[in-house]
Amino acid sequence: MMAPPRPEAWCSLPWLSLEFSDAMGIRPCSHSRDFFPLSSTNLHDLWRSRDMGNARYEIVSGRRPKGCSSCTQLEDQGMKSPRQIENEKQPFKDHRALEKLALTSSPFEFSMRLEEGVTSILSFPENQTVIRNWAPTLQKISFQGDEPFRHSSFLSTLKTLRSSGEAGHVNLTFFSDLGNFENEVTELIPHFRKTEVFLNFLDFGSRQDFINSHKWETIEKNLRKYQALSGERTSIVILCRVNIFNMFSLAEILEWLKANFPEFKISLDFQSATREFSIRNLPPKAKSELGHILKFITADSYNFIEGSGVRPVLEYLGLEGDIHLIRSGVTLFLQSHNRLEEDFKRQFPKLSGFIQETV
Ligand code: SF4
């Protein structure tokens, strides 16, 4: 019999979780740097594939799979890795427990990355059957990447889980922008154990001309629909990247959100996709204005995303305080430079000079 794996290499995720992307392939978790190519169009075959088996075998043999270097690096720097966090959460201390429980035939967590313009194999009837078969052990399903309401596989998967009668023990997570909403989702969400919706509220300082060309009326209407859904089992988190284009109206908009949608959580992220939009590169004369705004935001204890770049910003402004950091897998958003620059100049003509100094 094989010896138990070394605790420093042990990670239960290759036995419990699968992340799938039509464009990139599969990997055991979102922290892994290795996507294995798609050797099949059947999700169950991919879950039982040689590549996933090799990753499990590496761990059982006391080694870390190559793609797991992200965890190794964090641990080498003295930081807690997702592997360690997961090991604390999961009761499985070695693979024998997992195999004994015969749980290897189905993942506990399935994460789907939707790709823009790609019809996912998840929408294939055979894969909806796989999802139905996985339902009894599935605990979490998440959709990331492209806007889910543009993919038929999103709603069909929710319907499959609901009709399996097993959705009641599945936690659902998805990311969406506020320009899209399908009313069907309001009927489906209450069937799930818990739902977490992350709403990409990009550049919400630009109320009249939203970056994705969605009319403000649509955004407000959809905010109300999410509000009707929110409750003990459904949490709504608004994600916003603070940058030079929204920082001056942020306080006003946050006030409005707080007054009208007190149930929503708000997470602010300070990593700008491009250097010139980052509030960290502002000229000194903008610093006091920004400090004033951030004082307002931090005083209200909004959530800040761990790794969002908030710490250096607060240090820069001398505002380090008791900030609650949360972990979240937030995608970086690319911004349209020209559009935003025009937008900013129109809204803040007196401040547009800052752009000249910061670009
Ligand atoms: S060791 Fe880290 S990267 Fe590898 S599967 Fe576990 S959590 Fe994911």
Walk me through the topology.
Layout: H1 13-16, E1 17-21, E2 25-27, H2 43-47, H3 50-60, H4 69-76, H5 82-89, H6 95-100, E3 109-114, H7 125-134, E4 140-145, H8 152-164, E5 171-177, H9 184-188, E6 194-200, H10 216-229, E7 234-241, H11 247-260, E8 265-269, H12 284-299, E9 303-305, H13 310-317, E10 325-326, H14 337-347, H15 353-358
Parallel strand pairs: 1-3, 3-4, 4-5, 5-6, 6-7, 7-8, 8-9, 9-10
Antiparallel strand pairs: 1-2
Task: Give the key terms.
10-stranded mixed sheet; binds iron/sulfur cluster; single chain; 2 domains; 359 residues; disordered C terminus; 39% helix; alpha/beta; pyruvate-formate lyase- activating enzyme
Structure description:
This protein has helices at residues 13-16, 43-47, 50-60, 69-76, 82-89, 95-100, 125-134, 152-164, 184-188, 216-229, 247-260, 284-299, 310-317, 337-347, 353-358, and strands at residues 17-21, 25-27, 109-114, 140-145, 171-177, 194-200, 234-241, 265-269, 303-305, 325-326. The protein has 359 residues and is an alpha/beta fold. The chain has two domains: 1-79, no CATH class; 80-358, tm_1862 like domain (pyruvate-formate lyase- activating enzyme, Alpha-Beta Horseshoe). The protein starts with 12 loop residues before the first helix and ends with a helix. Bound molecules: iron/sulfur cluster. Residues 11, 13-14, 28-29, 31-32, 68, 70-71, 81-83, 86 line the site of iron/sulfur cluster. Iron/sulfur cluster binds at residues 11, 13-14, 28-29, 31-32, 68, 70-71, 81-83, 86.
